[in-house]
Amino acid sequence: MQSLISLIENAIREYHDRPAYACMGKELSFHEFGQQTQRLGDWLIHQGLPSGSKVAVMLPNIFQNPIAVAAILRAGMVVVNVNPLYTPRELAQQLNDAKASVLIALENFAHTIDKADREFGLPKLQAVVLTELGDAMGFKGRVINWLVRYVKRMIPAWKFPARWRLVRWPTILNTRSDRDPSLSLMDANGVAIKRSPGDLALLQYTGGTTGVAKGAMLTHGNLLANLDQCVSWLTPSELERELRAQHAGFRGLTMVCALPLYHIFSFTACMMLGFKVGLKNLLLPNPRDLKSVIQSLSMDPPHLFPGVNTLFNALLNHPEFHRMDFSQLKIAVGGGMSVTEGVAKRWKEKTGITMLEGYGLSETSPVVAATPRSLSEFTGSVGLPMPGTEIRLFNDQGQMIEQPGPGQAGEIGVRGPQVMLGYWNSDEDADTVFTDDGFFCTGDIGAFDANGYLHILDRKKDMILVSGFNVYPNEIEQVVSSFPGVLECAAVGVADSVTGEAVKLYVVPTAMGLDLEGLRSHCAANLTNYKRPRDIELRESMPKSTVGKILRRELRCTQE
Hints:
Helix 1 runs antiparallel to helix 2 and helix 4 crosses helix 5 (110-120). A seven-stranded mixed sheet has the order 7-6-5-3-4-8-9, sandwiched between helices. It is globular and about 70 Å long. The longest helix is centred in the first third of the chain and has 16 residues, at 30-45. Helix 6 (138-151) links the parallel strand 6 (127-131) and strand 7. The chain is built from 17 helices and 25 strands.
């Protein structure tokens, strides 16, 4: 296949009668999915936007998310994934950097968009498509929308500027067409929209290795290559044959989609993989609502369960876990953060399934390595390189370590077809993270064991990993330092039994003193929940280098 457009249209054609998604007790077939992506894609094309325009998606795990993503790609445009829980500052920063022309968002977050424009400005934004939670779910959805708006009152007041074109999701999606939904969309000149492997498909925002948010430029070819690598590891045809022999009513593989689709792990390993092999994604809008998660998994027993250690641990500790049906589960794989040995051991005891692990980054589409499916015991490693992927270790001078011995540590460098083009609007940064021979320097420290399995030891940079999400101290410190009464500050990661790591903030107050509760409110207003400091410690001074740089590593050492 030449592009994700071909991937999506082939899935609509080949798997038309299979369920593509399930959410809150309702299913959406590939055929229905194709119809809706066709309608939204046509609408995008007729907005008069130039080819390759950036369209942002600010949606949770509901039907509208994959519909929007597929429509954007089919229209020949570029997807910009946005965390719906962003603060106005974070949202404005990303939309403006990406130069997004259109934003597709859940109305629950319209007040954030409103505030982002009023306080920071969104000069490039031309149109906003608003959807409600149940818009893609028929009559049941209308009931859900009424409850959300009038009973739970989950939609705060908002007002958009007149310069934006505002359109409601049903206005676009309720149009009718007799066209085959798998046929290519046409541009304004009646020419079928096509894309090449080297064309940009996705801006996936990350702190990279420097801590400054920027978009990893992932091409159609990058993502297709990673899908082929994942399929080679997964061997879905073998799984289907095995399950078909065991269960007469088998309708295809079901994948748990608990990680948010704006996260690259879920975007590729759930959504895009679903297009590739025709599996059903079980969308979980709120994985923190364990009662709802368990209900969904009980109604629709999964065959594949990718997730993060946090979710696996929470399920294991829930009193209803023992009632869940894992008789059809074939693969459970942890990504985004390390799986702890205790969680892996308990998971094996409860489900009979060995927990596998993978390693990847936003810059690598994301999967770089994974433990073999044949493993019968948890290893704590992230396994072997994906097919066609080279992993090398580099020393502190940036030189490749030739034939590193077992346990010899170095910075992990990756070269392969899934590695990004570079960072959007940031050529200089891209030059610093690629070696002359094309290895992407990840900023992670790793080592190989005697069997050639890769182990992640540490991070070269100060990035904090909270429930699988990258949190960068620079961003937190910039927010905190703008608050009155803060003389100096530093953010570090500390161990947390639930999220893996949490943010701890050290502050040196001015002589005038510091309003601690006011600082917490300031952080809440400017930082997404997982970025907010769990603890704030006041200090008289900070440990510093001879040139005056705050030494975060010494602050971390006080926690060990």
